[in-house]
TrEMBL record, chains A, B:
Positions of the XdhC Rossmann domain: 89-231
Pfam families, per the entry: XdhC_C, XdhC_CoxI
InterPro entries: MoCofactor_Util/Proc, NAD(P)-bd_dom_sf, XdhC_CoxI, XdhC_Rossmann_dom
Protein name: Xanthine dehydrogenase
SUPFAM superfamilies: NAD(P)-binding Rossmann-fold domains (SSF51735)
XdhC- CoxI domain segment(s): 261-320
Length: 348, 348
């Protein structure tokens, strides 16, 4: 089982990665990791997936067959969890707008890389908590940034000639988003030059500029909120992915805790309104510590109790639990929503 | 002069407050504070405003006559600065969504009050840095919150019966914004009950719910960003106000610094694109410390040099400085924008 989570932690975020879990019948809890159509690893007891790898991959990739992450194969429901949640935010420039973007990015759990050639400003980015700060001319800095399908580039340098350098290089990298600050007129000029410099027109047409949602943002913090709101919007427009947070994987895999059993809780189905969506995960330790949340409130407490029962039972390894938040009871208990969710609990 | 800033710091944020400053001619730098049509205080040397108080108030209040904060009276240009920038954010509930709202609110310089009846959750709000946390049942908590034209209410409690309590009370308070979390169906029910409980229909029709801009936010932090983006959008839709930040007023008024001269820099006019808008302020101390920013870059350095000259001159108290960011020089210096701004520098 741990091997599988190790494979999940190690998988290449530039590939398409998916974890499939059987959520009913005898095979309840059987799991496999797929990367770019290939079956990489499955839970030992299983063997189930190797016979159906291609079928499962194809069904999971098809929006019509895979609704909200669920497919049905031979009467079994399989929850297909597309990985790739972690955003890599690459910010060119560490001026006034950059700082709130760094801060909100970190709140969201992004990896944040900042490029800035002025040492003082680079220090501001470090103080704001950026994961990596590269204090070199933008050209050299960007040669160290790889890009990828989860990389979001924010160009907020102090002047358009630096923006030009950055855009020319970034447009050639794999990316999920490129946003650039500046007035319409200046942005048009930079784009025009980028085209002459050989950048792909299709990429330039996709440039988010003026950067950020139009909320009449004025101060640097307001512009930072507008930029991050736009990035969230772009991210969530794609095939909904949830995956495993770094914190959860770390808690599962760190050596000192390997011996302690834990329960991984995943929302695998949702009807109506619920605080969190399918794919949301929470890890419960025997001491009652929770990493992540499936929505809080009484619903979460109820799930926690089951998790504790499972931690103290030797037999039960997986359970699918149905939470109904529609009735009068839920109302009385002050639950927030009116939906129904299925929660998968797995002892690890 | 300090008296005027003291009056600005003390003025009632439930009234409409405006600072008028003459920005050219012999009266350059003459200033007055108005509250609800009344002239409250003017710079001693002046006497100018008392003769024209009503006219100036009326012109400043008229969107056609007061464009971007400027009016012209007898050939003099007067910059009219509407106060009321500081947002009071009142958050009901200290659960998962509340925390990022608190954090981003603090980044924006808001005063943040959190109401929560569960001590553990109230502690989370304290740790997140909330200005005030009231740990009492919502009914009692809200009786201690006054409301006002700059108060933004965010209702994100753990259940709809608490939301109901909060909405019933908040709808009766003066406010700039009320947002409430929850599914459409549940929100409709809470609104219906609020109407039966005697709340004003017009207020309920203005309720922002589902709360937050629609960016498909999923995680608590994403929902927090969506909520703050909505609040910024609502705030900036109103008559643009800028005013004086607490930090700037504090630095002007704190006793230990009273003796030291400082320069207040204000953007009073803008054409074309510039990093910051009219009303943006920066205070420069003799040691070269800046509180606030008028946009950074070379333009700001140039303004700083003039501020230092003025600090060392006994004669010059005010100067209007014109910054042109359109030319080839600006391009060469890497300035971000292509606009023209007028900056007022005042020795205090």
């Amino acid at each position: 089982m741990l091997e599988l989570y190790k494979a999940i932690a190690d998988c290449d975020s530039n590939q398409r990665n998916m974890v499939a879990t059987v959520i009913d019948g005898e095979a309840l809890g059987q799991k496999a990791l797929f990367s770019d159509e290939m079956l990489i690893c499955e839970t030992k007891e299983s063997g189930y997936f190797s016979g159906h790898a291609e079928t499962i991959w194809n069904m999971a990739s098809d929006k019509d067959q895979c609704r909200k992450g669920l497919i049905t194969l031979d009467g079994r429901r399989i929850y297909c969890d597309w990985l790739g949640q972690e955003i890599h935010l690459v910010i060119c420039g560490a001026g006034h707008v950059s700082i709130p973007v760094i801060q909100i990015g970190l709140m969201m759990g992004c990896e944040v890389t900042v490029l800035e050639d002025r040492p003082q400003f680079a220090d501001n980015a470090r103080r704001a908590g950026a994961t990596t700060v590269i204090c070199e001319p933008f050209e050299q800095g960007l040669s160290q940034v790889e890009g990828g399908s989860n990389t979001y580039f924010v160009i907020v340098t102090r002047g358009h000639r630096y923006d030009q350098t950055c855009l020319d290089l970034i447009a050639r990298k794999n990316h999920a988003y490129i946003g650039m600050i500046g007035s319409r007129a200046r942005v048009a000029k930079v784009k025009e030059t980028a085209l002459l410099n050989g950048c792909d027109k299709a990429v330039l047409d996709q440039l988010y500029s003026p950067i950020g949602l139009n909320i009449n943002a004025e101060t640097p913090v307001e512009i930072g909120v507008a930029i991050m709101a736009e990035i969230i919007e772009v991210k969530n427009r794609k095939m909904r992915s949830s995956g495993y947070s770094k914190d959860i994987l770390h808690a599962i895999l760190k050596p000192e805790e390997k011996s302690g059993r834990k329960v991984l809780v995943t929302i695998v189905a949702r009807k109506g309104s619920a605080p969190r969506d399918v794919g949301t995960k929470m890890l419960v330790t025997p001491e009652g510590r929770c990493i992540g949340t499936i929505g809080g409130g009484c619903m979460e407490s109820e799930v926690l109790q089951i998790a504790f029962q499972m931690l103290h039972s030797e037999r039960e390894k997986s359970r699918l639990f149905h939470v109904d938040m529609t009735g009068a009871d839920a109302e009385e208990e002050g639950m927030v929503c009116g939906g129904v969710i299925d929660v998968l609990l797995e002892v690890i």
